[in-house]
Design goal:
This protein is an alpha+beta fold. About 40% of the residues lie in helices and about 25% in strands. The longest helix has 27 residues.
Length: about 240
Amino acid sequence: MDAQTIKVACSSCNLRELCLPMGLNPDEMEKLDKVISKRRRVKRGAALFTVGDKFTSLYAVRSGFFKTCVTTADGRDQVTGFQMTGEIIGLDGIVSDHHSCNAVALEDAEVCVMPFDQVEELSREFNTLQHHVHKIMSREIVRDHGVMLLLGSMRAEERLAAFLLNLVQRLHARGFSQSELVLRMTREEIGSYLGMKLETVSRTFSKFVEDGIIDVKQRYVHIKSTDGLRQIVNPQNCG
C-alpha cells in the first residue's frame, strides 16, 4: 500500500455533498478540514485494512472502487459489499475497536482518512455532523437488510437485476450515465456477493442479453431497458 499522505480540504472537494453534511458554517467546516486532512492511496489489489486491524479511522472513498470481504471457515472469500466514490468504509470496526472484514481496492484508489475519535468529538459539537454520522450508520444497516432480503427470497435473475439497478443508481448519483457502467468487480465477486455460482452469474447475464435488456462487452454493461430489470425484481409493481 502506498502510505503517502496528501493534504486535502473538505471545503473544496467536489464530493462533499456525497460524503459530508451540507449546512456546516465556515467555522465548522474549517474545524472539520483540520480533522480530515490526509488522503491515502491504495493500489489495485491492496488492502486498506484487514480483519483484526485496530480500528482508528473511517475512510471516505475519493476515487476508485473497493470490495469488503471476509474469509469463511473453509478458506473462501465471501464478498460482503462494494464501495465507490463518495461512500464511507470502516464502520465495521466501531463495535470492537478492530476491523471485522478486509477492504480491498478493485482499482487504484484514494481515500480521505477520518480519525474516528476526532470525528466523534466534533460530532458532539455540531448537531449537523452527528446527524450525518448516524445517517451513514443507518444506511449501512438498511443496505445489510436489503442484501439479506436479496439472498433470502430472490431467484438468481431477481438478484442480478436488483444488483445492476442498485449499482447504476449509485453511479448516477455521482454524475455517471443511467444506462452504462463498467463493472469493477469480476463475475466471481458478483456471485460471491449475491450467493450465486459463477456459472449462474454468467448464464443470467447471457439471458438478460438474449432478452434484449442489456448489452455486455467484457466489463462494459449497457442497460437497454431499465424497466425490464425493474420488472424482473418487482413484477407486480410494473405494468
